[in-house]
Amino acid sequence: MTTTTPAPTGPASTARSRVGALARAETTLLLRAKGTLVAALFVPLVLPFSFKGAIDSMDLGGTGLDLGTVLLPTALGLSLLFAVYSTLVSTYVTRREELVLKRLRTGEVRDPEILIGSAVPAVVTCLVQWIVVTAGCVVLVHPGAPSNPALVVLGAVLGIIVAVGLGALTATLSRTAETAAVTAMPVILLTMIGSGVAIPLDVMPDTLATLARCLPFTPTLSLLRGGWAGNLDSGETLLALATGFAWAAFTVYGVRRWFRWEPRR
Predict the structure, then answer these.
(1) How far apart are CA 121 and CA 107, in angstroms?
(2) What predicted TM-score, i.e. pTM, was given to this entire model?
(3) How many Å apart are CA 252 and CA 249, to the nearest integer?
(4) Fewer CB atoms inside 10 Å of the end CB: C or N, the chain?
């Protein structure tokens, strides 16, 4: 009687290995996209210091802020906007239009793993930039140590979740890779003007500041700046946390509900 030897099989696939494989592939593709790479790497590192003159001219008296505690969160917020949000809008649209997302869904990889694996290189880029920017600001503008590191960490985590989710949602509204940057522009401009990137909420008129607190990235900037400067009271902290968690939950729900995996025809 002839017996057959079963064909050797490799190690069982896990969520971690699948996400890692996708992240490595996406890193390779990101390195080949020179325009996206330049915007993700250099804009967030160079742009913050163009705000220095404007910050110097602000009246920060009574806000508990100074040049360092204004400029550092500004730099962190810009890195989140360009390295994560803007990059992922372009990435998701391009992969969708090239049918990469559709093909990936025919295998064993799950939908959340596809989105997370595609986002890993952008998030890692942002984290590296945060380290570099923080070190540069400590040397150049002396923001001091964070007064409440827990708020800084919470703000960073919420910001990454919202940036990834909002990037996927914005990609849903973009018909082609060429229009992705245009579709992302309103969020970038609103965040830079209203979320405390260019102008801290502490120096805005009260009515405008109240409206600005509802924007997606405002909780992140408020927690980063408040966690560093220690100028948030308990009510402001709870409001920022509640708004941040609300936006994070909305983006996760929105991606599950509306994200498009195939080209728009």
Answers:
(1) 22
(2) 0.89
(3) 5
(4) N
